[in-house]
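Late entry, D-malate complex.
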Amino acid sequence: MTALPTVDCTVYPYECDAFGHLNEAAFLAVFERARWESLARGPGMDVFRRSGVWPAVRKATIDYRAGAYPGDVLRVETLVTHRGTTSFTLKQAATRVRDSALISEAELVFVCIDSIGRATPIPEEIARLLGPRTGGAGSRAGAGDLLRIEAGGAELAVEIRGEGLPVLFVHGFPFDRSMWKHQLATLAHYKRIAPDLRGAGASTAPDDGYSMSRYADDLVAVLEAAGVERAVVCGLSMGGYVTFELLRRHPRRVQALILCDTKAEADSPQARRERDELAALAQSAGAAAVAERLLPALLAPATHTAQPEVVQQVREMIERTSVAGIVGALHAMRDRPDSTALLPQIRVPTLVLGGADDAIASPAVMQAMAAAIPGSHFATIPSAGHLAPLEQPLAVSRRLTDFLSTLA
Ligand code: MLT
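Prediction complete; structure with ligand written out below:
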């Protein structure tokens, strides 16, 4: 736990009530005064303002142990008991200097907010002041921080967990970040960043404006919000199409590539017609009809027979996708450029990974794609279809860890 500078505060008469002791509300002011003073003695009182953020108190709890009186000098110690991505918790204790009596203890949970009140990652300089990230009080068990960020007219939900080499997980269609839930939980030595693309999961769904370039620019906004310059980008299927676009538009953002169950070719004329048919089905019959249509080909035969809970999870994920998001993604995929010419130009470490029973991006197609990317690695996951990360999570996580450990 990091300790901020200890500060002595004198109790002033105007802070005391009719009974002559420090008023209960004034205790909070004393603790606040000590926090400001410790900033003044350390990085400066303007440390938050110059980083463009503000610490908003979300919760304050206080214990009153004994009375304090005008002229008493209270020694206030401040400890950082938790530091997350956007939040931190301080524990403060006030003891009277003359007799070492514990007078009061308080715990305050802060969230870093930007100028319009949105939770925002703790900036580098303040993170250094607060000390290393913890899993202690104030963190949600097992879960990461969920940010909501603004990007091109949409609000995107972004889950961020852990510290280390950043890995950006980009989901496929019509899914959301929960398709990576096993990898988000288990790749403990990496900073896992998983957005819901616009129109999916907990992100908002604008009526129009969906395109591969828009999705790719959204990913840049996600990296910015996570305080990350470059990341290993791991895209599945449509997430792979978006990743190709990210490589074209923002190549310096990509440190390494993991292409899962995806392909580089654009849609054939027949596939384009099928996109329009599926969009019409979504509009007339809703997401449940889309789930019914897609489910048979999405998962391996072994998953359909032996893992009904995975089938149900995928169904629910599709059913909660908005119709606007489904239609927007279908149009974006229909109109996406062909990325085959990009493959030989890829110069970052690349892993191509797919389900051995993927009926949408077949192993043969993925192997050919890997062969066109200089120095890439190719692997298949047995008994997995198009959603290998959910169907065979351990095998996928092991492959990812093996690859990521070569990058450190
Ligand atoms: C996906 O999983 O993202 C889709 O299968 C992609 C596609 O339909 O081309």
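Residues 172-173, 237-238, 333, 360, 386 surround D-malate (CB under 6 Å). Will revisit in the morning.
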